[in-house]
Automatic annotation (TrEMBL):
Pfam families assigned to the protein according to its UniProt record, in alphabetical order: Thioredoxin_6 (PF13848)
Record-linked InterPro entries: Thioredoxin-like_sf
GO MF annotations, alphabetized: protein disulfide isomerase activity
Gene: Erp27
Subcellular location(s) per record: Endoplasmic reticulum lumen
Key words of the record: Disulfide bond, Endoplasmic reticulum, Isomerase, Redox-active center, Repeat, Signal
Family: Belongs to the protein disulfide isomerase family.
Name of the molecule in the record: protein disulfide-isomerase
GO cellular component annotations of the record: endoplasmic reticulum lumen
Domain of life according to the entry: Eukaryota
Lineage summary: Eukaryota, Metazoa, Chordata, Craniata, Vertebrata
Primary site of residence: endoplasmic reticulum
Its EC number(s): 5.3.4.1
Length: 219
């Protein structure tokens, strides 16, 4: 839905198709679709139009996903998992729902910023690969296309991250890898348990180069 209005999911087949059709999908499970909680969920959907929102009050759908009423679930393909926000025991409002979505919306390639960084830190994947690059560059769309193609090959193994070198908030990360702006774009791979990492400056991104760099580091 491009209107920011949640799609109504009346049966299990609709819900599964909805989840399967997006990198990140959010479903609000509500017994009463007109409840105050459901109304706040609709507001969150309207303010997060880049993420598909669905809403279900079907007992069969709730049972299928093993949730109680008043639960917001975020499904993400990159880990093949989901995160639940229980609205029954907490004082959850629209703002908290949006924050829950923004923190957990890890994608095939996740853009790094102060909010998504929390989700990146909490990721179960032990390897992170950063593409540190200037998003304003005319070469950016093609670089991203190749980087995404490589991300498909390592789905569930490596978290692929885009780091825009123009953002002031990212300067610390760039300096952590001892890179200067003149050396960008660069790839930086990171093993979270022991902070071991490797950096490669690249004139051009190719899917094969990214693949070789990742495989060498993992081995």
């Amino acid at each position: 839905s491009t209107t920011g209005e949640p799609i109504l999911l009346n049966n299990i087949a609709d819900a599964e198709a909805f989840v399967g059709g997006a990198e990140v999908a959010v479903i609000g499970f509500f017994q009463e679709p007109e409840s105050a909680e459901a109304s706040q969920f609709r507001q969150a959907a309207a303010r997060t139009p880049e993420v598909p929102f669905g809403l279900s009050s079907s007992p069969a759908v709730l049972s299928h996903y093993g949730v109680s009423a008043n639960t917001v679930s975020l499904f993400r393909r990159v880990h093949n998992d989901r995160r639940d926000l229980d609205m029954n025991n907490e004082d959850v409002d629209t703002e908290k729902m949006i924050r829950f979505v923004r923190i957990n919306e890890l994608r095939l390639v996740t853009e790094y910023d102060p909010v998504t960084s929390i989700g990146v830190m909490q990721s179960s994947l032990r390897f992170n690969l950063l593409l540190i690059t200037d998003k304003m560059s005319s070469k950016h769309p093609e670089r991203m296309r190749r980087f995404r193609a490589a991300a498909e090959l390592f789905k569930g193994k490596i978290l692929f991250i885009l780091l825009d070198s123009n953002l002031k908030s990212n300067e610390q990360v760039v300096s952590y890898f001892q890179l200067k702006k003149s050396q960008l774009p660069a790839l930086a791979i990171f093993h979270t348990p022991d902070d071991e990492h490797d950096v490669m400056t690249v004139d051009e991104i190719s899917t094969e180069r990214v693949q070789d760099f990742c495989n060498r580091f993992i081995q």
